[in-house]
Design goal:
By secondary structure, this protein is of the alpha+beta class. It contains four helices and 13 strands. About 15% of the residues lie in helices and about 45% in strands.
């Protein structure tokens, strides 16, 4: 794992990166593709395509996580958001490289995958809900179901990842929060309580593979010199 100083010597300006951006009033960070611009390390700039940055909803009191691909290695960088320059540019300060053991909590990736939730306790009335994930990490997932599940309820989860050998991931989790987002749609956050280390590793491998695909996408920010103010 490279150090903070090494990251800034290796990353090139105009490189596509992803930011997990803290949003006011929201637990989940918003993930956006953007473009890195070098300044004076550990400060750096991120440029966004028009309309992609929720500039008025940024929570400046929480750290952002910037996801980088350096020589084929996924790196997660925790950073303070120092300034909103305008509706297409942020100034940040890199604070630390997120180590591998922290990844399962920080590294959350947009993953659409089918899953089934059932009661974890045998005494509970049997039910089964099919849903689809919104995002996944090594410590839990966010999914959409057609019915709610009570906060704190333990559930048994089976998940089929879009990568790997197709074998289901099995875990016992509890509901962290549940909210209605449409007439017959409920967004439910689950935290894994019991999961095999091999299954957790498979989740992380899936996250890294999907993240690499995100970072290979070219993010076009037209005329970056016009976005940034002249000194």
């Amino acid at each position: 794992m490279p150090t903070l100083d090494e990251i800034f010597t290796q990353i090139e300006t105009d490189k596509a990166v992803r930011i997990a951006l803290p949003i006011l009033g929201a637990t989940e960070k918003k993930r956006i593709s953007c473009v890195y611009q070098e300044t004076t390390p550990p400060e750096f700039l991120l440029l966004f395509t028009p309309g992609s940055l929720p500039a008025d909803k940024i929570d400046f009191n929480r750290k952002a996580v910037v996801l980088l691909d350096i020589k084929g290695q996924n790196i997660s960088l925790a950073a303070d958001i120092k300034e909103k320059i305008n509706d297409q540019a942020l100034r940040l300060v890199g604070r630390e490289v997120i180590q591998h053991e922290q990844m399962r909590d920080f590294f959350r990736v947009d993953v659409s995958a089918p899953l089934v939730a059932r009661p974890a306790l045998a005494k509970d009335q049997e039910w089964s809900l099919s849903g689809e994930t919104v995002d996944v990490s090594g410590s839990g997932l966010l999914a959409v179901f057609k019915q709610p599940i009570n906060k704190g309820e333990p559930v048994r989860v089976e998940l089929i990842l879009p990568t790997g050998n197709g074998e289901p991931i099995k875990a016992i989790a509890h509901v962290v929060r549940s909210r209605k987002i449409d007439d017959d749609q409920y967004q439910i956050a689950l935290h894994f309580d019991t999961i095999d280390s091999e299954d957790r590793d498979r989740i992380m491998a899936c996250c890294f593979e999907i993240q690499r695909k995100h970072l290979r996408l070219k993010v076009q920010v037209k005329n970056p010199e016009k976005i940034l103010p002249k000194h």
